[in-house]
Target: Deazaflavin-dependent oxidoreductase (Nitroreductase family)
Amino acid sequence: MPMPLWWGHINKRVFNPRAVKGGKWPVLTHVGRRSGRTYQTPLDAFPVDGGYLFVLVYGARSDWVRNILAAGSARLRVEGAEVELTAPRLVDETEAFAAMAPDAARPPKLLRISEFLRMDHAGA
Model:
């Protein structure tokens, strides 16, 4: 796992609420797989052909990733618009980088990120 989980807990409780309220970051809205609660997670969203790609900084075992995989869908607020996303699937870095625009920022190699989440536009 590239980033330590304790940092994820700090992000979840301290920085994420500020990022959601700030409105500058893309925000993924998803439903808890056990609680049924609605959650909002700010993160980087890379547009790809037919959908979006998300960098899994904390790996595929993050709560938000498991919630989306279980639900099969989520909503993304990006640039003031709401986008319905479906068909979540984990992809490796080869597939992720092939899907990204050539000039898109890549995660630093130092983080050793090898897992990504890809989702399609609903109805696409």
